[in-house]
Amino acid sequence: MKLDREVILEAALALLDEVGMDKLSTRLLAERLGVQQPALYWHFKNKRALLDAMNSEILHRAHERKLPLPGETWDGFLRENAHSFRRALLARRDGARLHAGSEPDPGDLDMVEAQLAAVVNLGVPATQAMTLLIALGRYTVGCVLEEQAAPPDAEMRQQALDAAAASRPLLAEAFAHYRRAGPDALFEIGVDLMLEGAKARLAGKGQAAEASPPPRRESSRRPSPPSSA
Asked: What is the pLDDT of residues 94-109, one digit of tens each?
């Protein structure tokens, strides 16, 4: 078998589905491919580069709604984009953990630019469009991270929690609604809240907060463009 990037990525994604992020290693991947570990570094300089490439491959394969359809509103597009991103992360075991902390591939920046331009052309200022794309992307990753982190005994633990909340009427009602809704509906509710807030700002509400942003906090992490494009 000729060892190239495509072969390595296919094997790496299959291994991720099999063993998850905690056990995924270049050593194990090399064993599955029948090569020495250094052979992988001809194609990926380190494990981080491999993980970033795996993330990009997942998005290329399964993230379908990257640009608005003809006649689509900006909020309608951002909603569908978030759902498409979520489906892509859920398509692989630990997809959200793999994505978290990744950097967009430089080759994807043209798509990020086209996506940002499309939202701007639909009436959203560039800075707010970027903020929305980043916020929705991070919200999506967080939601999927919680879904994929559920332990094997999650249902039993939920039942115990619900029983303990039964004597607390507000919690009992809230928990019941939460259980009935399920992750799909709860994700949609969160997206609704973010988009409705953005529309309110565009309509002129909350401009005082926009004019006086909170004090900037120093961070050791450089800001990155949205990698969910």
From this structure: 999 999 988 777 888 8
